[in-house]
Amino acid sequence: MVRAGLSAERLTQAGAELADEVGFDQVTVSALARRFDVKAASLYSHLRNSQDLKVRIALFALAELADRAAAALAGRAGRDALTAFANVYRDYAREHPGRYAAAQLRLDPETAAASAGVRHAEMVRAILRGYDVPEPDQTHAVRLLGSFFHGYVSLEANGGFSHSAPEARESWARLLDILDALLRTWPAS
Amino acid sequence: MVRAGLSAERLTQAGAELADEVGFDQVTVSALARRFDVKAASLYSHLRNSQDLKVRIALFALAELADRAAAALAGRAGRDALTAFANVYRDYAREHPGRYAAAQLRLDPETAAASAGVRHAEMVRAILRGYDVPEPDQTHAVRLLGSFFHGYVSLEANGGFSHSAPEARESWARLLDILDALLRTWPAS
DNA sequence: CCGAGTGCCTATAAACTTTAGGCAAAAGTA
DNA sequence: TACTTTTGCCTAAAGTTTATAGGCACTCGG
């Protein structure tokens, strides 16, 4: 009886793939076990429970997305950094809808604080260094960018833009222009 | 044996309350039946299945939110309309986190087209009538506002802003100022 | 007051979650 | 190599949820 070679890491990775295929909320311990030709109970040596699996996938997705964003940011600044970073988000959500949904999972505060979510905020703040947003507004600007990126990508993923005419890609490009201009000429308080 | 007086409407309403209490993804046919002191099977006379329940709650939340937004918009224009509308979203998500999560449920295209989601987009477009955004950019501006509102509220709900210093309320007010200014002086293409 | 319809019931089956305990393969030790 | 320890996946089993089918009794129109 050859062993399947399970581990928390392999289960998380396979869970992320499963999420992309069937949707994050369809990810179950049973379905994941089926994918490894193994009984569901066997997974409980590696996972505490079903919620633990979901949290692991969420952390995995957050880290993967942060890695891609960091790579895109390397060597860029200003508008170039802004669009590169933004496109990483949008592309990730389009390529990996299940993982992107996972990254939105509500984490308890200490888990969130130890997650790659922190890196995301740091990277947005790094982008702002290419602009002259005055210090007291920096955090506000970080939140503006983060909210816009997430909101746009999430609405697009949920079909919010599918009915009206201009392609989502076109709005995206135009709005990144607008935001770039806004950051360059940030209004004083 | 006194009847519980179930109906799709009462179940949807109670499902929305349940969502606010325990989270939208914890809403199950079983839990809802328990709340009415009724067997789960009884609900299937009123609901097709578990997914049907979730869709009904989502449509209920979308409509309720649209009603509140419409009420807030009445008699207002420009910046006044913008902030009133935005605050309806934020307040709704804070008062009714489960319903707000429900409103994000992915609907199939024809259901979405028949939902109150359409009214949301129309109202944002109405707000823009108080500004001089040139026609070709109107849809982009609608998407900017929609993305920002949803993204901010959703990140705040998921604890994304809880660690860093400025209160989420403060950023919100400042960013609405910024967006108002942006809309007033929308850059030409 | 009676007949018809429908509202909630019981019974049942299948899928998923989770715990407990067992056996055999893998890894460590002499 | 042989023996022990560890660990990985198993079976068994109980509890929960979803969903269907069929039945009884309450309610309402006549």
UniProtKB/TrEMBL annotation, chains A, B:
Annotation: DNA-binding region: 28-47
A Pfam cross-reference name: TetR_N
InterPro entries the UniProt entry points to: Homeodomain-like_sf, HTH_TetR, MT1864/Rv1816-like_C, Tet_transcr_reg_TetR-rel_C_sf
Keywords: DNA-binding, Transcription, Transcription regulation
Stretches that traverse the bilayer: none
The keyword Transcription is annotated on this UniProt entry: yes
PROSITE patterns (alphabetical): HTH_TETR_2 (PS50977)
One GO molecular-function entry: DNA binding
Domain of life: Bacteria
Record bears the keyword Kinase: no
Domain HTH tetR-type: 5-65
Protein name: TetR family transcriptional regulator
Naturally occurring in which organism (per UniProt): Prauserella shujinwangii
